[in-house]
């Protein structure tokens, strides 16, 4: 009874986020790096949402999805970055049990939602290039809203399952989480429960999430490539490819970082942290840059907004 009570008590106490295992003076450099990257994330994604909402020319399904992508990037980076920056200066580096649950839940919610949203964006590009005459009919406002709502719903269901499975484990070992935020794998290392069934369920859940989204993206781009190669004019091919290159860049960065993190063995936790940093902060920073630099409509909208501000001043 005494051991059981101690175990239950340990499950409800604070966790300690170890972060990066570097010398204390490097923490200042990491803080500055996180601050710069997070500031760029805020500026880029808020700016993208403002541009899309204020420019009537961007009132299309593609930019509706892009606005939601910016919203997701903004929030899931905000779940991670502020606490990580605080811990660079904190001696305790602690996070409450409730805070850890909330961090894992929100991060899982937004990262899974982004995966499904990227699949919806691939389908949008497929319709735009392969069936341009039916684009406005097939990609209706109702369908776009349903695709975004469905992405959030899938993200929510996945997050509830992942979070509930993780925090029903018995944490009877150290409370020191070898990461800079609460994530499933480092939390599993603290558990003395039998993880076989838990890992099988997690693998199955990840497969159900990742495989359908990858299949939709790959099949969509197979049809897109087939259609683009049939276009005779070089200018036509270039224009078609330019509308897809930004999306492909975002997909490659996100899925590349996710696969690298989850394929990294547990004996290399620092590599896993670097991969986590890529998709939790670097990807949200790059997404607005990729779309603004590679997209003519967005560049024109930014130019128009800047000209409007200069006229007011």
TrEMBL record:
Residues 44-291 form the G-protein coupled receptors family 1 profile domain. SUPFAM superfamilies: Family A G protein-coupled receptor-like. GO terms for cellular component: plasma membrane. Pfam families: 7tm_4 (PF13853). It is a multi-pass membrane protein. InterPro entries: GPCR_Rhodpsn, GPCR_Rhodpsn_7TM, Olfact_rcpt. The chain crosses the membrane at residues 26-51, 63-81, 101-123, 143-161, 200-224, 244-262, 274-293. Keywords: Cell membrane, G-protein coupled receptor, Membrane, Olfaction, Receptor, Sensory transduction, Transducer, Transmembrane, Transmembrane helix. GO terms for molecular function: G protein-coupled receptor activity; olfactory receptor activity. Belongs to the G-protein coupled receptor 1 family. This is Olfactory receptor. The lineage of its organism: Eukaryota, Metazoa, Chordata, Craniata, Vertebrata.
